[in-house]
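Methods — Computational structure assignment.
A single polypeptide chain was analysed. Its primary sequence is given first, followed by the predicted tertiary structure written as C-alpha cells.
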Amino acid sequence: MNFPFYIARRYLFSKKGSNAVNIITWVSVIGVAVGAMGLVIVLSVFNGFQGLIQSLYNSFDPDLKVLPIEGKYFEPTDDQLQKAYRIEAIEVASEVLEEKALLRYKDQEYIATIKGVDDAFNRVSNIDSMLLGGMSIWDTEYPNRNAMIGQGVSYYLSLGIDDMFNPVNVYVPKGDLDNTFDVQNAFTNKQLYSVGVFSIQADYDEKYVITTLDFAKDLLSLDGEISAIEIKLVEGANAKKVQDELQQIFGDNFEVLNRYQQHAVLYKVMNVENRMIYFIFTLILLIATFSIVGSLTMLILDKKNDIKTLWNVGLSIKEIKRVFLTEGLLITFFGAFIGIGLGVLIGWLQQTFGFVKLGSGGNYVVNAYPVEVHALDALLVLTTVVVLGYLASKITVMRLSDSAID
C-alpha cells in the first residue's frame, strides 16, 4: 500500500484534534462539490439551448447549399446538374429562387423574402410538417397563385388563411428601368393567396413567404436563373466528401456551404459564449478550490506532532509533503465526484421531467429549460477541478519545510 496515501486517507476521515479542522475540511469538500456541480449544470443548460437552436435551424436548412460567390442568381449548366445529381450520397436536391419584396395586404405593408421552390423542396425541408394551419401549396389546384406564409409575416400583415377575396400584392423593383423617377412603372406587381401558415423559429417566420419557383421566376422576369441549390444527403453520408465533390463540379465561382457555414456567425457566437461561461465558472471554482489551502494549513498545524513522529520513523520531508499533497487531492477528488454526480443527476432529472419551467408568460418553443448532459463536459469539469485542486495543494505543501519538524 502507498504509505502517503494511507496516512492521507486516515487524516481525511478520522477525527482531528480540533473540531474546527474537521469543519474546514468538509467545507472544502462541499465548496469543491458545489462548484463542480454548478459548472456541470450550467454547461448542460447551455448545451440544451445550443442543441435547441441548432435543431430549429436544421429543420429548415439543407445539409448542403450551393451558392454563387458573386451576384444573386446563376444558371447551372445541364452538365453540372447531371454530375451533381449522380452523386449517390445525395438523396434529393431542390432549386430555389429568393428575393426581397414589398408585400401589401389590405392596408398593411411588410418587406419579406419571396422564396420560390420546386416540387422537391418539401423533401429537403419537410415544410409540410411545420404548418400551423392551412395546407401546402402543392395540395392546391393552382400552386402558382398560392403561398405559405411565415407566422411572423402573417402577424405583421394581419393575414389569415384562404382569403380568396383579398390577395397579397407582391412588389419587386424592375431591374431594367431607364427612368428611375417613373414610379408608376418602377415595380413588378403579382398577386398571391395565403393557403398556409408555417412556424419554424422567429428568424424564418418573420422573413419568408414560400411559393413556387415558376411564380418567383415570373415575378423577377427570369428564365433559368436560380439563387441556390439546396441538398439533402442520405442518412449517414459523409457531408465533407460530398461538399468537396460538389465544389469540384461547380468550380471556383461557387461556394458549397454545410449547415455550420450557412450560419457561421451564429455558431461562432455560441462557441464564444460557451468558452466565456466556462471561464467565468472556472474562476468561481478557483475560489472554491483554494479553500483547500486553508484546510491543509489547519491540518498541518493540527498534525504537527504527527509530522515529527513521521520524521523520526524515517520519512523524508519530501514524503511528508506528499502526505499532505495527497490529502489535498483526496479532498479535490471527493468533492469533484460528488459535485459532478449531483450535476449529472440534476441534469438528467431536468431533461427527463422538466421540473424547472421557462415561465408562465410568453410563447416559448419549449416549456422547460432544455438540458443536454455531455460526457466530455463532465470530463472537462473533472480535469479542471483536479488541476486547480492540485495547484492549491502544491502551493500549501511547498511552505512545509524542516522548520515544521523542529
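Note: The longest helix spans residues 19-58.
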